[in-house]
Amino acid sequence: METIKHVTDAIVDKAKAVIHQVADTVWGPTETDKDVLNVLRQDHRLVASLFEQLETISNRKDPVAEGLFAQLKFEIEAHAHAEEKLFYPILNKEDAFLVRKAFAAHDTIRGFLKELVMIPMDTPAWTSKLTTLKQSVQNHVDEEETRLFKLARRTLSETQLRELGACIEREKKDLTADVKGVSN
Fold first, then answer.
1. What domain count does the chain have?
2. Residue 168: inside a domain
C-alpha cells in the first residue's frame, strides 16, 4: 500500500512540475506565483533556452555566439550562487545528503564552465564539452525540481516560499549590478 502511495505521489509531483513548466513557458510566473520554486524554475527555463540558442549557431566565431555563452555562464553562476547562499542552507536541516549532492552538481558544472572558457569555441572539443555541460545541468535541474522542490514545499510555508523567492531575485539583481558596474 505504501508503494502505491509513493508512486501516486511521484506521478502527481511530476504532473505539477509539467503544469508549472508549461504555464511558466507560456505566461511566465505572476507576482503571486513568484515563490522561490517558480523563480528557480524560471531560471532553469532561461538556461535551457540559452543552450538551445547557442546550439543553433553554426559559426561559433560569431560575436553573437560569444555573447550567448557569456550570458549562459553568468546565468548559471548567478543562479548557483543564489541557491547556495539562500535556498540550500534552509533545506540542509531537512536533508543534508540531498543538499550535498546539489552542491556537488554545482561544483561539477562550474568545472565544465572553466574548461569551456579555455577551449576555442569553434572547435569540436568545445561543442562536445558544451553538450556535457548541458547534460549535467539537465540532470541537476531534474533532481532539483523533483526532490529539492518537493522538500521545500513540505518544509516551508507559502509565505516563506514567496519571501525566499524575493530574496533570490534581489541577490541575482545585485550580482547583475555588480557585473555591470565592473564592465562600465
1. 1
2. yes
User: Considering the domain boundaries, does residue 125 fall inside one?
Assistant: yes
Q: Rounded to two decimals, what is the model's pTM?
A: 0.79
Give the domain CATH number at 73. Answer: 1.20.120.520
Where does the pLDDT of residue 12 fall: very low under 50, low under 70, confident under 90, or very high at 90 and above?
Answer: very low
27 domain-assigned: no
**Residue range 51-107, pLDDT digits in tens:** 999 999 888 888 999 999 999 999 999 999 999 999 999 999 999 999 999 999 999
Cβ atoms 37, 156 nearer than 8 A: no
